[in-house]
Specification:
Largest sheet of chain B: none
Order of helices and strands of chain B: HHHHHHHHHHHH
Structural class of chain A: mainly alpha
Helix content of chain A: over 70%
Largest sheet of chain A: none
Largest interface: A-B, 67 and 56 residues
Oligomer: heterodimer
Number of helices of chain A: 13
Structural class of chain B: mainly alpha
Strand content of chain A: under 5%
Number of helices of chain B: 12
Order of helices and strands of chain A: HHHHHHHHHHHHH
Strand content of chain B: under 5%
Distance between the termini of chain A: 19 Å
């Protein structure tokens, strides 16, 4: 187990090195001079451009630039946003809680829907239920999340007016920031109106983002249940006349680990999917920050945000792999595939 | 050949798969024949006929905020999805296959190096990497294809490498080597044909992924230029008129959904047909779909 963790950590360091090179290269694959691209069509004098070049270190040799960027990144300094003039780390720091909150809420939605669907379609194999479950999964996978989001807004915000179409909380709640997680902050301060407003705001984005993984999760959980269903101990338990719910609990406990892994990998994809969903719902998270930064051609901010997202993704994968090894001792390093 | 016939027979039995093939054939035809099928020019504005609802006189699916015919724009928009879907997947598969064959067959430090590169690549959510690439390269159809190829090749590289590793030690490869065949001959003539079935399945499913990614990029304002009609771009435009003109955002999204659904149905059916071991639980590349 320890050997596995050490080797997996070594692998992660290598991957992070590769990630840093890819992110660093981004600013250098721009056709032409990065500063000229950033200020294309804007009234910025040649001296100012030269100053920006020096600020970004673009006048240095490539290797030196990379080392300097990484050295400051390791100290939590990802440069300064060109448009806002504030440190990139600071800007990113304020958006991370919103993205994490949305991701966790989406995961919750996925579990709540996927578990019953998987159980029903695994136990009623060959029935209408199973085919319905399959069809639902297929629909969930094929539905582009930005479209689903817009359709939900159309029906539940514009039409029925049950949920707000964008934002994270109603304005003017006067909530103090403690953790940055809005729902947690609201509960800590006993501000139930703000908590309710937060819940109502997060509902549609969470459903949109959750739908994307519900399909995969229910399929994997279903196949896990099918595998467990035929095993001797389940037959033995059934023969002893255990109640159905007890039986189900035993089966789920054995089928869940594989699904946990899939969910871990899915959190990574959720981070990617969150970009689009955040834009659709005006959710003030990391994904929308990336898109805004790109639209403003704020390269240092783009670079920093991409780096942070990729590192988060790598760490989640690392965590899932270790969790998997802990849950299932048969896992070896070569057997871990994503 | 036998596999081909078996696939054909298998698909023929499944009504769902046949429906999917019909939808995709229609999609390809519409894209190819767009200039002749579209009742209006997709870019002609008619400010006197703005935001007409579907089933209006002369505009079956209504008009948008500039009075452009929605049906004509949908028909022309299919071309971008079609071109991007097929070209990006073809290029990505080619690069991935070459890398996978080299990595799996040569082995050693070459394999180690290539697979570490693949690992680093996979450390990015695909959409994020594509967004970042388009952001620095600039908008445009060619840059979208580049971004999708750059993000997509790793899937095939991993797949082909895995297959190559096991095929490399099989008797027919060993005997070919014994008979003095060059490594390139062995890789191309003996190993590659045996990897084609899984590649075909992944590539089919990837068409759906790539179409959604292109639409996502267009939706985020990073797509083809404004002069080129794309489904994602139409959706983004339609968002501003959600309360006044529901059809503007609904119809292009529906088009994307139907095509991607057909691709996924076909991909699942191909997998069932080509891989008898496989139980009906799509994994792997399907996992990427919703990203």
């Amino acid at each position: 187990m320890l050997g596995f963790v050490v080797r997996r950590l070594g692998q992660t360091v290598l991957v992070l090195f590769g990630v840093s090179i890819i992110v660093f290269s981004l600013i250098h694959i721009t056709p032409g001079d990065a500063v000229d691209v950033m200020f294309a069509g804007e009234n910025v004098s040649a001296e100012q451009r030269e100053q920006y070049r020096r600020q970004l270190g673009l006048d240095q040799p490539l290797v030196q630039q990379y080392l300097a960027y990484m050295a400051s990144a390791a100290q939590g300094d990802l440069g300064t946003s060109i448009r806002r003039g504030t440190p990139v780390t600071e800007i990113i720091g304020t958006t991370i809680p919103a993205t994490v909150e949305l991701t966790l809420a989406a995961l919750l939605v996925a579990v709540v829907i996927a578990v019953p669907v998987a159980v029903v379609s695994a136990l009623r194999q060959g029935s209408v239920w199973e085919r319905g479950g399959n069809l639902l999964a297929l629909f969930g996978i094929s539905m582009p999340s930005f479209w689903l989001g817009i359709m939900l807004i159309l029906v539940f915000s514009a039409g029925l007016q049950w949920f707000p179409a964008s934002g994270r909380v109603a304005s003017g709640t006067g909530l103090q920031q403690i953790t940055g997680f809005l729902l947690v902050d609201a509960v800590l301060q006993g501000d139930w109106a703000a908590a309710w407003s937060g819940l109502v705001h997060i509902a549609l984005p969470a459903v949109t983002l959750g739908t994307a993984i519900t399909a995969t999760l229910s399929r994997v959980l279903r196949s896990g249940l099918l595998e467990v269903k035929g095993q001797d101990y389940v037959e033995a338990l059934r023969a002893r006349g255990l109640r159905f719910t007890t039986l189900l609990r035993h089966m789920l406990r054995n089928a869940l680990p594989a699904s946990v892994i899939v969910m871990g990998v899915r959190i990574g994809s959720l981070l990617g999917g969150a970009i689009v969903v955040e834009v659709v719902f005006g959710w003030p998270g990391l994904g929308r920050l990336v898109v805004d930064a790109i639209q403003n051609r704020d390269f240092p901010l783009v670079q920093g945000a991409v780096l942070v997202l990729a590192v988060l993704f790598v760490l989640v994968n690392l965590f899932t792999d270790i969790l998997q090894a802990w849950l299932d001792p048969r896992v070896t390093l070569t057997g871990v595939s994503r | 050949m036998r596999a081909l016939r078996r696939t054909y027979a298998f698909l023929g039995c499944s009504a769902l798969a046949m429906a999917a093939i019909a939808v995709l054939a229609a999609f390809v035809l519409v894209g190819l024949l767009a200039p002749w099928l579209a009742p209006h020019d997709p870019n002609t504005q008619d400010l006197g006929a703005r935001l007409l609802p579907p089933l209006s006189d002369g505009h079956v699916l209504g008009t948008d905020a500039l009075g452009r015919d929605v049906l004509s724009r949908l028909i022309h928009g299919s071309r971008i999805s079609l071109v991007v879907g097929f070209i990006a997947v073809l290029l990505a598969a080619t690069i991935g296959i070459v890398v996978g064959l080299v990595s799996g067959y040569v082995g050693g430090w070459v394999d180690g190096l290539l697979m570490r590169i693949v690992d680093a690549w996979m450390a990015f959510p695909f959409l994020l990497l594509a967004i970042a690439i388009v952001a620095v390269l600039g908008r445009g159809l060619d840059n979208i294809v580049i971004a999708l190829v750059v993000t997509g090749w790793v899937l095939y590289a991993r797949l082909v490498r895995g297959e190559t590793l096991s095929l490399r030690e099989r008797e027919f490869t060993l005997s070919a080597r014994g008979l003095g065949a060059s490594p390139v001959t062995i890789a191309v003539k003996h190993i590659l044909p045996n990897c084609l079935a899984p590649i075909l399945v992944v590539a089919t499913l990837e068409i759906g992924v790539v179409i959604v990614m292109e639409a996502s990029l267009s939706f985020l304002g990073l797509g083809a230029s404004a002069a080129e009609t794309s489904w994602g771009g139409m959706l983004a435009d339609g968002r501003s008129y959600l309360t006044r003109a529901w059809w503007l955002a609904t119809l292009p999204g529906l088009a994307i959904f139907v095509v991607v659904l057909a691709v996924n149905v076909l991909g699942d059916a191909l997998r069932d047909a080509l891989d008898p071991r496989h139980e009906k639980v799509p994994q792997g590349s399907v996992d990427q779909l919703s990203a």
